[in-house]
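COURSE: Structural Biology Practicum
ASSIGNMENT: Worksheet 4, Part C
STUDENT ID: 0417
INSTRUCTIONS: Below are two proteins. For each, the amino acid sequence is given first, followed by its structure token string. Answer the questions at the end about the second protein only.

PROTEIN I
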Amino acid sequence: MQTILLISLFLVVPLQNQLIKTETPRSISEGVVEKNSYVLGPGDELEVDVGGLPNFYYPASVDLNGYLEVNTQAYVDDTPVLEKAGLVKVSGLTISEAEKLLLEEYKKLYKNPQVTLRLLNARRFRLAISGAVKNPGIYEMSPLDRLSEILMAAGGLEGGAAISRIKLGEKTVNFAPYIKEGNLKNNPFLLEKMDVYVPYAEKTLRIRGCIRGHPVLDGPPETQITAPTDSLAPLHEYLLELLDGETVKDILEKAGGRTTYTDLNSLYVIRDGEKIKATLDTELRDGDQLIVGTIPIFVYVTGEVNFPGAYPYRPGLKVLDYVSLAGGPTERGKKHYFVITRQNGDTFRAKPDDGVERGDKIEVVRISFMWWEDYLKVLTSITTLIVTWITITK
């Protein structure tokens, strides 16, 4: 009978451990938790460190009713043991508040005690997220997770999400300042019963071009779509919420802001089929498209060169330097002057030692007539025609 019991224990215990492992709370590293903001609840595992005389510590979990054990240290045959001295309700308190409450309890038991609480493992709970997200559903989260993390877990925001009024439990959160400037006050921590609903915006605007973007707008890396480009600059396209009175600057910030390659001189609004030059202060309307240009980072070498193509712009390089990078002129390429076409469409002749701007197109002009070669080709053609004519007329 004992043998059967032992075998049963060996068979059952690993299974229990496996089941528990799937629900293991999130492990915490020292110094990661913000004690003034983390709110305790049933399932949190803590270490209670009591300093002074005596000096001891013990692990304790917040029980289902929200209570934490208060233990004292005693000795049995010179061996220190813990004895339960009471319970304090800590559920709903921050770790800092719970420390103060425990300190008051230990002041009743010891002279000048010190109490430190450390979170060992964070509890897990399930929250529902719905509305303008790519994968609505139920996700397992913890109090260490913020609103942005459940949005990412749900695949990121859908186009047209009203990020100014996301429902988090009974609260309404304006998530825009977090995307604009990383303001964590607008990206709160999650708690039980804080289901998330992201409504769709009443007014929207489409922005595309050279903008920084944001992970919550793009979604997890495996769901992101990279726009084809020959530029190193990031290109994105979003359908964003538009609030009354918002300008190009507001929308640009809402899309993650500008990058090193964003060209603020190439801002355009397409409205009712018309392309309008814009500035950061241009006020936008529902249905507008905002185009954000890119500062060119290449110089293009074309024409009679061995390796035509795009070459990275480097300050200080001259026309001949870029032509050399392209393998130099071919036998039919002119070497004494070249033709440059600027971004604005201006075209002019350039000398080999002239400077180059970003986005310039350098054309190596073809020599129209090389007498020693072309003369031979013409003579050969004429000879061939004569021989053919004589052959036909015989």
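PROTEIN II
(use this one for the questions)
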Amino acid sequence: MRALLAGARRKQPALLKLLRRLVESESPSADKAAVDRCMALAASQAKALGGRIKLHRQRAFGDVLEARFGPRSKSPSAQPLLLLGHLDTVWPIGTLRSMPWRIADGRLAGPGILDMKAGVAMAFTAIEMLAEASLLQREIILLLNPDEEVGSPVSRPITERLAAQSAAVYVLEPAKGLAYKTARKGTGNWRIDVTGVAAHAGLDFEKGASAIRELARFIESVSNFTDLPRGLTVTVGTVGGGSATNVIPAHAWAEIDVRIARKTDGPRIERRFASLKTADPRCSLTLTGSINRPPMERTRGTVQLYRRAQALAAELGYALPEAAVGGASDGNFTSALGIPTLDGMGAVGEGAHASNESILIHHLAPRTALLAGMLAG
């Protein structure tokens, strides 16, 4: 492991050069052309490292990049390892003007650097180190998705298919503090639309049926679905409705975020939403939504991966904690299939999705060495 750490330190200038190119290739999820440009940079890097490239073409989103390294897997007993990442970001084109690539106080900053272009650059560096040291003993699949920030609508089936062929999945999302992530909550989104009866608030009050009042009842009901001991939360995040203060509102809506820690709570919460009914028979309800990412639970397979990483980190001279987090990633999909999945294997930093997004430079080499050690095993 010490040799890998020395190698990672030698390669850090090249890692930073690649990372800057990725960060300065802005890639918001909804801009296919922009994501494809960033994906082309990654494909070029993969080819330079001898990767076997397959581009999964998409129409509505950027293309999905699959790159394979090392010897081809020829038997079920030699399953590949899947490195899972994404190149789309939450930042619109032009963000670089207000959030340029910059180095200050031991940090690197820029849009998407933490979530998660640094993890992608670390993966390429780790693969290069292993190839040069003749330590690529099994096939490694690097899968880079274009749509993770918006729920992975096109990449999910590709992710699940490749995960099912793999012995384990390593997710290049940023760390939680210094920790690898061994559990994540699943996510769901619902929208409630209520239609009532409009009427003049003064002249015809009794003829109206308030959609807003009905929505308020629903908001109270679904908020009470929260069960903190189970790790289940329901958050009504946005609401709207009505047309004027002197009109009984004929329409109102709410958008709702749901987080679950247990896979079994998915069907349970879906049934509870489906059971909602209007109290005022003159109002009607339209309900859309579902659980869209299952939870990544702390399974035995994931714990085994974490224990191995913890031991390798100790050889490098630092402690590696573990964490459970409320946010989801593409690792939720692979874990739900029963594939051992370890997350948070990317950079250390802060400010994901925020204007202070940045990474700590001094953690790059040790964590890249650790990633290489996990891939070499």
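ANSWER KEY EXCERPT:
Q1: The domain at 186-293 is CATH 3.30.70.360 (Alpha-Beta Plaits).
Q2: The chain has a mean pLDDT of 97.
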